[in-house]
Amino acid sequence: MRKIRWGILGVAKIATTKVIPAMQRAEHTEVAAIASRDLTKARAAASQLGIPQAYGSYEDLLYAPSIDAIYNPLPNHLHVPWSIRAAEAGKHVLCEKPIGLTVAETLDLIAARDKAHVKIGEAFMARTHPQWLRAAAIVRSGRIGDLRVVSGHFSYFNRDPKNVRNIAEIGGGGIMDIGCYPITFSRMMFSSEPSRVHAFLDRDPGFHTDRLASVILEFPQGHASFTCSTQLVPYQKMHIFGTTGRIEIEIPFNAPPDKPTRIFVNDEVEEFPACDQYTIQGELFSRAILENTEVPVPLEDALKNMAVIEEIFRSAAHRKA
Which CATH superfamily is domain 4-124 in? Predict the structure, then answer.
């Protein structure tokens, strides 16, 4: 059985603790190499995770003939530059969300993908989890009537000045880190794009990142609203309301890989067996390469999510003016 040989760009925590172990359990993925600008760190991660090859530079990984695809979990401002370099080296790319910092950057990445004839996708692992797919199917079935409202919340508390999420210059802040999730969830449930965006942001006086955001998205069929924060008690939930019913997703974003998950449909509970959404994401991406089909979250969708993010910042800035 053919497997896609993956190289990991960097030793980010999400890669070493979540994505790599999950991908190693997928049927068609092989994590063959990991790179860091510090060879010692790359070798340590490789030893810890049982990865055969370690590289002391990103370039060495990108041009390794034994590697088919790259997973890019670098800080946000490095998503597009290194994904473009990977594409130019002939590698397929699964890039962490958000895909970039701007719409313009994302368009550059699409152009690079098309020129190189490779596959590039955004790593929104939750979009491939069975609970999201089931919720979307229920909405489309008409079981809750006509969809009118999507609402939710996503927060955690982190004031570490060294954490990349708190560094404005490299794409830190709540909207980029976690606000992008309820945005893509709302777009997925409505199966359309918002026509107007209304946003209110509160910025940390020292970090200058958005630490609290309240957003309303106007869709042709109804409204989506959410709050996200990097300085609130950890919590997450998404609700879907139709004209005759409702859906609640109990743990919509960080679904545990070792426990069942639940959604509530009106007065009924639907339970999903434990599964790792990172394993599913890696498997589906690898199969898309092997079968020459579309990746789970293509750049065209990433571009639309990025456009909403830009509108959020534009709306908030206008209200401050």
Answer: NAD(P)-binding Rossmann-like Domain (3.40.50.720)
Under 8 Å between Cβ of 272 and 261: yes
Query: What residue spans define the domains of the chain?
Result: 4-124, 130-274
Query: For 35-75, how does the pLDDT look when each residue is reduced to its tens digit (9 = 90+)?
Result: 999 999 999 999 999 999 999 999 999 999 999 999 999 99
Query: Do residues 299 and 113 lie in contact, with contact meaning Cβ atoms separated by under 8 Å?
Result: yes
- In DSSP notation, 83-138 reads HHHHHHTT-EEEEESS--SSHHHHHHHHHHHHHHT--EEEE-GGGGSHHHHHHHHH
- What gap in Å lies between CA 110 and CA 76, rounded to an integer? 17
H-run or E-run covering 318: helix 299-320
CB 151 within 8 A of CB 226: yes
Cβ proximity of 255 and 278 under 8 Å: no
Domains 4-124 and 130-274 share a fold: no
Two structure tokens written together for 176:
């980029």
DSSP letter, residue 176: I
Q: Which CATH architecture has domain 130-274?
A: 2-Layer Sandwich (3.30)
- Say how far apart CA 193 and CA 65 lie, in whole Å: 40
- Token pair for residue 88? 């130019």
Buried b or exposed e, range 69-93, using 16+ CB within 10 angstroms: bbbbbbebbbbbebbbbbbebebbb
Q: Three-state DSSP class for 217?
A: strand
Query: In angstroms, how far apart are the furthest CA atoms of the chain?
Result: 59
∠ CA 86-69-165, nearest 5°, is 65
pLDDT digits (tens, 9 = 90+) for 192-201: 999 999 999 9
